[in-house]
Model the fold of this input.
Amino acid sequence: MRDALSAAQGSLAARSAARRAAARRLADVAAALWAAGIVVGTLRPAPTQNPATALLLADVGRNLALFAPLGLLLGSRYALGAVLVAGALLAGGVELLQAAIPGRDASAVDFAADAAAVAAGAALARRVSLLDGRRAAWGAAAAGLAAASALLLPALALRPHLPRGVYYVAWNPDHPAYGPFPGEIRAASVAGVPIGASGAAPDSGLLRRALASGAPVVVEAVRRREPDGVAPMVRINDADHEILLVGADGDDLVVGLHSVGGTLGLEEPLLRGRGALAGVALGEPFTVALARRGLAWRARVGAAEVGPFGPTPGSVWRLWIHDERVAKGRRRGYDALSVGALFAAVGLFARGGRVALAGFAAPLAALAAAPVTGMAATPPGEWAAAGAGLVAGALAARAAARWLEPAGRPARPSPAGEAP
Done:
């Protein structure tokens, strides 16, 4: 019987070792695929960007998001020194090759961000564990606090930041990124003060204070046809920044205001009043009145009112990837997906205890606090994505634990001659 028990234990150990070996191979394959994705994504030609308007912080953030998972995958398998060397070689090779690709350029800042991301991912792989209860609880707390910080970031980054200086106004402007508005602008005003069709604003200080206070912005226009893509109606800018943009995209009303994030080098997504222009007949004059409270806007188009519309916690991804590069119908889905991904990271370390519960509570509180911070209320789709992400992460962690460490002791064999 003792021999049979030893054999069963040996068989269990062999199966466990085989599963761990398979997990290591899977991590290697995942790391290789991720590295290939980095190469393909970063070595494609890109639209040429004016270095004077380069979004440094957004670019660094994208690099961190690309290289940190690679460090996490490699750090679970190899020594820290080897991971750092591999990450530096990949990052250096990518930066050197980008110097010869249209729209790309080699950057020491990008290289440093890439190497730092690999190091952070590798260090994290040694600090957290899906299998060890105590380390998993601290992993849940760290993931929860990081998720809460990310979900609240739009409330900080999209706060208006209107620099002093001379402001310039343009109706139906010749915008470098968008097409012309298919119609005409008849009048525009801020806080009841008319603004001209082009040129420097008569009183830039008054205009800046009115915009900062959330005073109404009114535009009178005629739309000859629906615009195909974003079409600015009124633009206010200074020598270095786009201060305000009011435009249309199909039946949507779009508005953008210069923000803290834009000053720091993040993207500044346009906010949308969906269907605000749906009741406007082509060729008929209409008036848009926009008023801001906090970070959210309300729009009155004729007798119809739309809003409030503004950033939600799920729009955090838009601070790093320009909103208008994504098809209009997919943005809400990506908002929900970003929330789900953040909560899935918390769910991966799902364990009981106060520390883990704090990790779960923090991002949920961030979703609930959205209106208090000035954002629009978290929509149902983002709440549903949060729950789905938690469940998906917890199920994935449970499956990994069962696969890597078969639970239970081997069954005690029956004495000879007895029925099992």
